[in-house]
Write a structure and sequence with these properties.
This protein is α/β, with parallel strands linked by helices. Among the domains are: 87 residues, Alpha-Beta Plaits (2-Layer Sandwich); 58 residues, no CATH class; 171 residues, DHBP synthase, CATH 3.90.870; 198 residues, ATPase, nucleotide binding domain (Nucleotidyltransferase, domain 5). Helix content is 32%, strand content 23%. The protein contains 23 helices and 31 strands. The strands form five sheets. Strands 6, 7, 8, 9, 10, 11, 12, 13, 14, 15 and 16 form an eleven-stranded mixed β-sheet that branches. Helix 15 crosses helix 17 and helix 20 packs antiparallel against helix 21. The two termini are 41 Å apart.
Length: 764
């Protein structure tokens, strides 16, 4: 044997199972004339190679840089090994282990190779709507347990034909061990039904569906992570009908187009946006509208953006090729309920919404909404993190004992930690009804099973009435850690940026239960993972009607005006007073004066709402955050002026007085200043005000780092402006890029706080 002949064992962790990693290793080893084996283990992949040392070195280098598209190596270890005189290189059977900690790939879009086959009349899978390979297709939504093998997926019901089985067994084939592998002869199939559940036979279901959509019908379409409700986005009547039937008055609809060129007909695409649109994750991307455009005004009313995505399944491509500029593809659910994943459930829930149903017989085990992102301040930011990203973990700078964090009430996600990884669930939704609560509980059970963990620490929000809190408190034989809402926001930002405290945290949102029992939301905190202190906040203002004030911003307007003008507010010549009856205004004043159902709030979100109503933009909202969103959309970003602002120090806490801002805005309205200028001045005021306070707190604490979190930071003007102003003042600024700034990211913060409080974090 040659003197430079050696053997090595390589252990690889990460997303390396079910993504074509073993055949990649097999082919790479053969190119380098190496012998040995590769097999799946509980934590990833183990490789034994033997051969010329120089070739082994080259093999190891290529392992790290040239892996399959869906693979993600998180750790690689290399050990000398005894030469075992293997005759060849082979793919061995999986190693059985008691502990299972492999990472699972998210559901991803169809790859270019499969797309080429899909449209090739000479390919045996021509026009097959479930074409896939190891580089693409369903993963998370069809898995029931680990390991990720076909018997543990919803494909267990389909026995592969001889040709598919041969591909599945061939290490040289890109469908080697592709668990959803199938074709027309052995796999799932489509069926089209009318509204009476009658199967429409003797036709091509996709072609017929395209024809129906062009006629203005609404079709429920079963996709990868659940149903969509589809309509032709150019057909104003169809889009209006969908809005009316779905009881979705004004919230924007998501749309899908066949390719980038078609999207450019109605939206502006920046280079960074094109890359994320075309990525294998295929999120919905918020793109600025072109005006004029040919899409129905009802797709995204009173909004500068279209939420747009490219097709991500073969079915979508087959449908979209029928010359649509765009299709509305909105989540298949009723208002406030989870998306439907089951055919029978869809028939029942959409009986008064959909005219037809395009279904298939591959079960979806776990629903997953489309992810939504927006490019702001040079980065891609999540509004909703779900399909295409989950269950890829967020990596932490500490190992942690396993924690289950139950999230908040709105935009709920849950988080389970394992070692230095935080696994956030897909978007669950607003925990306000039984069906969403059942989905929440199902998701927790599913994540525990596929992650093979049963956390002994459970974290939840301080709010006693959140269903997520009630669930946590009902758990037995676990340690419960209750976490303040805004502390969790900032800790989540710190965790994803892999930094420890202390930081100055700007936590801005609409609602969060404070330690004093009041409603917080305009906070500057000094934060460590295990604790925080409140350094500054917007002064409290009554929230007349409590939850009603969120849906009716005119109530907040009256509250802010009453705080400044008292009973004289009735004499103000401004839109909100002129459009609100004197009796209604009097009713709100009485509620405030008598402290009847008027909890106090420091929320910046509510201040945005109040100002939106004061200047005549929005007195009532149809969806959460609408008033603040329209105030942002209207803003003149070139405005440099600000309103007067003021704060007072009370027991070492700075309290921001809203009265000077409200006075300035009312004066501008009286003087006929355009609402766009008022909005611009208000945004500029918030940026300057909080930057000045951060400078004062830095002087008090010597803290140079600022973390930004909370749903208000979905406002692009505010986020970009705060980052710019703080960096100009020599702060190190951290914001969200891996999880949403809104409550969809709060479970991450809850988890790391609970671990820190429990003393279960240590350097990895």
């Amino acid at each position: 044997m040659q003197r430079d002949y050696a053997a090595r064992r390589i252990e690889i962790e990460g997303i390396v199972q079910g993504v074509g990693f073993r055949p990649f290793v097999y082919q790479l080893a053969n190119r380098h004339n190496l012998k040995g084996e590769v097999l799946n283990t509980s934590s990833g992949v183990s490789i034994h190679v033997e051969g010329i040392t120089k070739e082994i070195d080259s093999f190891c280098r290529e392992l790290e840089i040239n892996g399959p598209p869906l693979a993600r190596i998180t750790d690689i270890s290399d050990y000398p090994e005894t030469v075992k005189n293997h005759d060849s290189f082979l793919i061995a059977g999986s190693r059985p282990d008691a502990s299972r900690s492999v990472l699972i790939s998210p559901d991803v879009s169809i790859c270019d190779d499969c797309l080429k086959e899909l449209f090739d009349p000479h390919d045996r899978r021509f026009s097959y709507p479930f074409i896939n390979c190891t580089n693409c297709g369903p993963r998370y939504s069809i898995i029931d347990d680990i390991p990720y093998d076909r018997p543990n997926t919803s494909m267990k019901h389909f026995r592969m034909c001889g040709k598919c089985q041969a591909e599945y067994d061939d290490p040289e084939n890109r469908r080697f061990h592709a668990q959803p592998n199938a074709c027309q002869d052995c796999g799932p199939y489509l069926t089209l039904y009318d509204n009476n559940r009658k199967m429409i036979d003797g036709i091509n279901p996709v072609e017929k569906t395209a024809w129906l959509l062009k006629q203005g019908y609404i079709v429920a379409i079963k996709g990868l992570g659940g149903f969509h409700l589809a309509a032709d986005a150019e057909n104003d009547k169809a889009v209006c009908t969908l809005r009316k039937r779905k009881l979705r008055e004004e919230k924007p609809f998501a749309i899908m187009s066949f390719d980038i060129e078609r999207i450019k007909k109605f939206a502006v695409i920046e280079p960074g946006e094109e890359a994320i649109l075309s990525s294998y994750r295929r999120p919905i991307v918020l793109l600025q509208k072109k005006e004029p455009n040919q899409l129905s005004r009802e797709v995204s009313p009173k909004n500068k953006y279209f939420g747009t995505m490219l097709p991500y399944t073969p079915l979508h491509y087959l449908l979209m090729q029928h010359d649509f500029t765009a299709l509305v593809m909105t989540s298949g659910n009723r208002s406030e309920e989870p998306i439907s994943i089951d055919n029978e459930d869809a028939f029942n829930r959409f009986s008064d919404i959909a005219d037809f149903y395009l279904t298939h017989n591959r079960d979806i085990y776990l629903r997953s909404d489309d992810s939504i992102v927006k490019r702001t301040a040079g980065e891609t930011r999540f509004i909703r993190r779900s399909r295409g990203y989950v269950p890829t973990p967020v990596f932490l700078n500490r190992n942690m004992q396993s924690v289950l964090a139950c999230g908040a009430e709105l935009k709920n996600t849950v988080c389970i930690t394992r070692n230095n990884k935080a696994f956030l669930s897909q978007h669950i939704g607003d925990l306000e009804n039984l069906s969403t609560l059942e989905f929440f509980e199902l998701t927790i059970r599913h994540m525990k099973r596929i992650l093979d963990v049963d956390p002994e620490i459970v974290a939840c929000d301080l709010h006693p009435d959140y269903l997520s809190t009630k669930y946590a408190l009902s758990q037995k034989n676990v340690k419960i850690v209750r976490v303040q809402h805004h502390h969790a926001h900032i800790a989540g930002c710190m965790a994803e940026n892999m930094i420890d405290g202390p930081v100055i945290g700007l936590s801005f949102d609409g609602t969060g239960y404070g330690e004093d029992g009041k409603i917080w939301g305009g906070e500057i905190l000094v934060v460590e993972k295990s604790h925080f202190t409140r350094a500054a906040h917007i002064s409290y203002i009554p929230m007349p009607g409590s939850a009603a004030a969120i849906k009716e911003p005119w109530r907040m307007a009256v509250s802010y005006l009453y705080d400044v003008f008292g009973e004289d507010l009735q004499d103000l010549d401004i839109p909100v007073i002129k459009t609100t009856s004197e009796d209604k205004t009097r009713f709100i004043i009485d509620m405030i004066s008598n402290k009847i159902n008027s909890p106090e709030t420091s929320s910046l979100g509510r201040l945005f709402d109040g100002i939106s109503a004061i200047i005549g933009i929005r007195n009532h909202v149809c969806f959460e955050g609408q008033a603040a969103m329209e105030l942002e959309m209207l803003s003149d970003e070139n405005t440099e002026e600000t309103y007067d602002y003021e704060w007072v120090s009370d027991d070492k806490v700075y309290k921001i007085l809203t009265a000077p801002i409200i006075k300035g805005i009312v004066l501008d309205v009286h003087n006929g200043v355009h609402p766009s200028v008022i909005s611009g001045k208000f945004h500029r005021t918030v940026i300057r005000l909080f930057t000045e306070l951060c400078k004062i707190i830095r002087k008090d604490t010597d803290i140079q780092r600022v973390a930004l979190s909370g749903g208000v930071f979905q406002n692009s003007i505010l986020l970009s402006g705060m980052v710019k102003a703080l960096e100009e003042n020599k702060f190190n600024v951290y914001s969200h890029k891996l999880v949403p700034a809104n409550d969809g990211g709060i479970s991450l913060g809850q988890a790391v706080i609970a671990a820190a409080v429990s003393g279960n974090m240590h350097n990895s």
